[in-house]
């Protein structure tokens, strides 16, 4: 019964379309089937060990020296 309900619903929508719209719909459906699947990226590849030859204190100092703190207010 569910399939018949879906078919009647599809048929009612299909009757509302003109010939050009039906052709466009068919073309888009075919193109969507022919597209290759999107490769999923392995999110775990984003993780890993930090590679650096500096010691921890040098890294901390580098991070702190790179901070920008601007307290000047711009006029509107």
Write a short abstract of this structure:
This protein has helices spanning 2-16, 19-34, 56-65. Helix content is 54%, strand content 0%.
Structural class: mainly alpha
**Judging from the principal axes of the Cα atoms, what is the shape?**
elongated
- The average pLDDT value, as a whole number, equals 81
- β-strand percent reads under 5%
Distance between the termini: 66 Å
Q: How many helical stretches?
A: 3
Rg over alpha carbons: 29 Å
Characterise the protein shown here.
Helix content is 54%, strand content 0%. The protein has helices at 2-16, 19-34, 56-65. It is elongated and about 70 Å long. The chain starts with a helix and ends in an 11-residue tail after the last helix. The mean pLDDT is 81.
How is the topology of this model organized?
Elements (H helix, E strand, L loop, with lengths): L1 H15 L2 H16 L21 H10 L11
């Amino acid at each position: 019964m569910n399939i018949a309900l879906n078919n009647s619903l599809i048929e009612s929508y299909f009757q509302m379309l003109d010939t050009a719209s039906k052709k466009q719909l068919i073309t888009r459906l075919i193109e969507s089937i022919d597209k290759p699947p999107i490769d999923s990226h392995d999110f775990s590849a984003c993780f890993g060990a930090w590679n650096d030859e500096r010691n921890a204190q040098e890294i901390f100092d580098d991070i702190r020296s790179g901070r920008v703190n601007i307290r000047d207010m711009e006029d509107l």
